[in-house]
TrEMBL record:
PROSITE patterns: G_TR_1, G_TR_2
UniProt biased composition (Low complexity): 517-533, 733-742
Name by which UniProt lists this protein: Related to MEF2-translation elongation factor, mitochondrial
Record key words, sorted: Elongation factor, GTP-binding, Mitochondrion, Nucleotide-binding, Protein biosynthesis
One GO cellular component term noted in the UniProt record for this chain: mitochondrial matrix
Organism: Ustilago hordei
UniProt GO BP: mitochondrial translation; ribosome disassembly
InterPro entries (alphabetical): EF-G-like_DII, EFG_II, EFG_III, EFG_III/V, EFG_V-like, G_TR_CS, P-loop_NTPase, Small_GTP-bd
GO molecular function, one term: GTP binding
Domain (Tr-type G): residue spans on this chain: 80-391
Record's compositionally biased regions (Basic and acidic residues): 907-916
Region of interest (Disordered), residue spans: 513-539, 717-750, 897-916
Length: 970
């Protein structure tokens, strides 16, 4: 029976003949085979099993049957053949277009007419949100995979024959707009390598540097650079490489390809690439460039000499870094004056490139045009050959806090919270399941959908996870692999894989998940001084490095349209901030300080809040009035304020329940130390350092419990209904307690979480303007607890807010005649405003006017001005950097056409005066940049653009503070 007839028969109900995907030309169907997908490199096509051909056009462009075939293969695939990569770049560099081509070539997706998804038509797989398709930009990261690609490098099999391995690639596409930087943070936290996409016309741009820095934060040091858009007027590989070196992105961009210009056309373009490793010319054909045609580059061809020179520089650079290749180079024969570089085998070069890419000493550079389907297949080959597998990465380091004293302190080294505990490495070979939740998505049908990276063990459908951040147990309902907005069910997710789990109710971005019922970790993997493996109780306090959440700088107010909408608005907002942790919610909290009774939502930028507003209205159906977007300020202690201390015990009714709790709080300003608060947990407190010390018993008088002779306010009495604590015999600190894991219940880590949650609420509103507090070191000690009923989480939050409010407000002056307060209590805080690191691209002819405006009108400080290289600097082949970095010649027709067109365009845009553009680096207050775009266009005759990134917050002058308070209506 034919496949079409089979699909129309009653044996496959619900499938119509129209849902059968037609095969691309020359694609071979291996009917009846149920083995994993095989590949034919000779035809440059994937060989598909019959199950791969079924597709549901009504739901998604994903091959649903292919998903079912991929899952069992992923479960058994060797870890060394897995790649977790992210696509990162500046906005409009072509990330999404490239991702769609990658997915199309791996047969993960198929669109109408067997062509990849397109941004302009809104048919992309990774940009599936309605807002993304309407605006043509990426708003949230999208994971797809694993998808399968045959490695071009053969591997000797056990039988002595050579075979090609199939590599499983999980792609994570990310936004390029700075407002959605949290999506880049989340992606880079869990991937092992990255593809950096560069616009061949613009070179390295501001957000390119930003995402590169984000990758460095998570030790993603293995990357490939793809110079895109080489079909456009003004594009230049040489200028792109110079921008990489000049910007400090990398000092050794290693060019692996040369672009081949279009023959016989008097216009810029690219028809293929020259592979310098293989010395082959590649051209691409088919509907979407799926057919790659290779031929040897011959002596006497137009690009042969340049390719020979470039390959010589490639070998020279690698040999200077790689001892293995250097030794092989010295062993190659030389004759008749010919250097051995040309005789270096391609396989040896590939191995050296891989070794140095994994070490981060080189940045392999490929080129092409994703929109024209040129150079995408070689990029897939490079991902398989050069980027690391999970097994190539070093073990992940976490911290285990075996004490009830949970301390978050600043560290120039960026150590994680819980530095009082021991460090332990989490290895792929560990048996106990350890995972990190890096993203949570709200799905109306599925509920909370949690994206995870498994670092050790194997996650099963039956696993019961413990969230070490919240102290909650989580039971899974389903285990899946992600394909953008669709998912593939699987039985397991193994160490090194990225997956999706359903059913988690209390998990947020950055939470660590462990399976405490699984086999303990091997003691050989621990970096701590003890050789004892982690027990279930210690595993409960294991914390992996979190996802860095940048502070919000813009805010808008929300107010339910009616009282009946209050609950629905609150629920929608909490769902929204759970999916996007870079949004901060102050729910009706402003009423305490301003009397407005409004809820305030803060985000990374105007576009960020605009998207949030749109999602609330259309996705969540919120009926609320939303105010205008405004700058979000911060409050901190004034310079004249020293150390503040207060102690109080609160006994009262709160929300109809009696509470009783006491503690001592000490607050001081961080000062210069604020710039060194790199600790992920400290940053989550808004740039504050929080120290929480739990004593085993209080030194203050308390009512006797009458039970075992303990005081009511003893920590041990508080935890009497939970696992019993006893003083650690081996501890040098008598106040440190250890936990007996024989009984279930609350542990010190959970208690610390309650205090930390309370501090987050207390720090969310300052006394001056109800803006968040930052730059404080807060120590909480001598805590008196009176049992879980009296000293509940609500009581803890109330006490901490009360203590902080008491410290930050001065007592009002008394009227000497009446003895009564003569006015409201003054605040001990002062305002800080966000300062933006700003880059402005402007024609040289308008440079003076723009600089004058920045310094005089915008209150900014110009730090540097970079002038573009003149055309004479790009007229020859050259080397640069420390180790013979090859910069290609610009004398070939492709570069000359591009340069001439670019120069002509610049001359016109500069008012006929010629010259290039300059880049201004300045630090400017955000408040002065809100409407700066129109001002800049007027100054530069419409031919300038700027970008900005948060540099930090700075204290304002008294006069500036008065202006801000007046604008805020204070």
């Amino acid at each position: 029976m034919s496949l079409a007839k089979l699909c129309c028969s009653s044996k496959l109900p619900g499938l119509a003949a129209s849902r059968v995907v037609s095969l691309a030309p020359r694609t071979t169907l291996l009917a009846g085979r149920t083995t994993p997908t095989s590949f034919s490199r000779s035809t440059s096509h994937l060989r598909l099993t019959s199950s791969h051909l079924i597709r549901n056009f009504t739901s998604s462009p994903i091959f649903l049957a292919a998903e079912r075939a991929a899952a069992p293969q992923a479960e058994a695939h060797p870890i060394s053949l897995l790649r977790n990569i992210s696509i990162i770049a500046h906005i409009d560099a072509g990330k999404t277009t490239l991702t769609e081509r990658l997915l199309h070539l791996t047969n993960a997706v198929s669109s109408s007419g067997a062509i990849p998804g397109d941004v302009d038509s809104g048919s992309t797989v990774t940009d599936f949100l309605e807002q993304e398709r309407q605006r043509g930009i990426t708003i949230q990261s999208a994971a797809v995979g694993p998808v399968w690609w045959p490695s071009p490098s053969p591997t000797p099999s056990s039988a002595g024959k050579k075979k090609r391995d199939t590599v499983g690639i999980t792609l994570v596409d990310t936004p390029g707009h700075i407002d959605f930087g949290i999506e880049v943070e989340r992606a880079l936290r869990v991937v092992d390598g990255a593809v950096v996409v560069l616009d061949g016309v613009e070179g390295v741009e501001s957000q390119t540097e930003n995402v590169w820095g984000q990758a460095a934060r998570y030790d993603v040091k293995s990357s490939i650079l793809f110079v895109n858009k080489l079909d456009r007027m003004g594009s230049s590989v040489a200028q792109s490489l110079r921008s990489v070196i000049r910007s400090g992105l990398h000092q050794r961009p290693l060019l692996l390809q040369l672009p081949v210009p279009v023959e016989g056309r008097n216009e810029p373009g690219i028809s293929g690439v020259v592979d310098l490793v293989e010395m082959q010319a590649l051209t691409f054909s088919g509907k979407a460039g799926e057919v790659a045609n290779r031929r040897e580059l011959k002596v006497g061809e137009e690009m042969y000499e340049e390719a020979k020179e470039a390959r010589h520089a490639l070998v020279e650079c690698l040999a200077s870094l790689d001892d293995v290749l250097l030794e092989e180079l010295f062993g190659l024969p030389t004759g008749s004056g010919e250097e051995p570089h040309g005789k270096m085998p391609a396989s040896s070069l590939k191995q050296a490139i891989r070794r140095q890419t994994l070490a981060g000493t080189i940045l392999p550079v490929l080129c092409g045009s994703a929109a024209k389907n040129i150079g995408v297949q070689p990029l897939l080959d490079a991902i398989a050959d050069y980027l690391p597998s999970p097994a190539d990465k070093s073990e992940v380091v976490g911290t285990v806090t075996g004490s009830s004293s949970i301390i978050s302190k600043d560290s120039a080294k960026g150590e994680e919270a819980g530095s009082a505990g021991k460090e332990i490495s989490v290895s792929l070979n560990d048996k106990r399941t350890t995972a990190l939740a890096f993203k949570v998505v709200h799905d109306k049908r599925r509920g909370p959908t949690t994206f995870i990276r498994v670092y050790s063990g194997t996650l099963h459908r039956s696993s019961v996870l413990f969230n070490t951040t919240t102290g909650a147990r989580e039971r899974l309902s389903r285990v899946l692999f992600p394909f953008a907005d669709q998912y593939v069910e699987t039985a397991t997710i193994r160490a090194g894989q990225i997956g999706v789990i359903l059913g988690l109710r209390d998990t947020r971005t950055g939470d660590t998940l462990v399976d405490i019922s699984s086999t303990p970790n091997s003691p050989s993997n621990s970096k701590s001084t003890t050789s004892k493996p982690l027990d279930a109780n210690e595993s409960k306090s294991l914390r992996l490095k979190k996802v860095h959440i940048p502070p919000p700088v813009f805010s808008m107010s929300l107010e339910p349209a009616s009282k009946s909408d209050v609950d629905s608005v609150s629920e929608a907002l909490h769902l929204l901030i759970r999916t996007d942790p870079s949004l901060r919610l102050d729910e009706a909290g402003a009423s305490a300080g301003t009397g407005t009774g409004q809820t305030v939502l803060s985000g990374m930028g105007e576009l960020h809040l605009e998207i949030a507003k749109d999602r609330l209205a259309n996705e969540f159906g919120v009926n609320a009035r939303m105010g205008a977007v405004r700058v979000s300020y911060r409050e901190t202690l004034g310079e004249e304020v020293g150390v503040l201390e207060v102690r109080e015990t609160v006994e009262r009714e709160l929300a109809g329940k009696k509470i009783k709790i006491g503690a001592e709080m000490r607050v001081r300003a961080l000062g210069e130390e604020l710039g060194r608060v790199n600790d992920a947990d400290a940053i989550s407190f808004g740039g504050n350092v929080i120290n929480i010390s739990f004593d085993s018993g209080s030194n203050h008088d308390g009512n006797k419990a009458g039970k075992e002779g303990k005081e009511e306010n003893d920590i041990e009495a508080y935890l009497a209904d939970s696992p019993r604590q006893s003083k650690s015999k081996s501890s040098k600190d008598s106040s440190t307690t250890s936990l007996d894991s024989s009984r279930p219940g609350m542990d010190p880590t959970t208690l610390a979480t309650m205090f930390k949650t309370g501090m987050v609420a207390a720090l969310s509103r300052g006394p001056l303007t109800s803006n968040p507090l930052m730059g404080l070191e807060i120590s909480i000690s001598n805590i008196d607890l009176y049992g879980p009923e009296l000293s509940s989480s609500a009581a803890i939050s109330y006490l901490l807010s009360r203590l902080l409010r008491t410290l930050l407000r001065t007592k009002p002056k008394l009227n000497p005649d009446t003895g009564l307060p003569s006015g409201p209590a003054a605040a001990r805080t002062t305002l800080m405003e966000p300062m933006m690191s700003t880059r402005i691209m402007v024609p040289e002819v308008h440079l003076g006017k723009v600089i004058n405006d920045i310094t005089s009108e915008q209150g900014g400080l110009v730090q540097d001005v970079i002038h573009a290289a003149s055309s004479s600097e790009v007229s020859r082949g050259e080397t640069g950097g420390k180790e013979e970095v090859y910069i290609p010649k610009s004398s070939n027709r492709f570069e000359l056409q591009s340069s001439a067109a670019s120069s002509g365009a610049k001359g016109k845009s500069d008012g006929g005066e010629g010259g290039g553009k300059a880049e201004i680096h300045a630090v400017v207050p955000l408040a002065n940049l809100v409407r700066y775009s129109s001002k800049l266009r007027a100054l530069a005759a419409g031919n300038a653009q700027f970008s900005m990134q948060l540099q930090g917050f700075a204290k304002v002058s008294p006069s500036r503070q008065s202006e801000i308070l007046q604008d805020l209506g204070r």
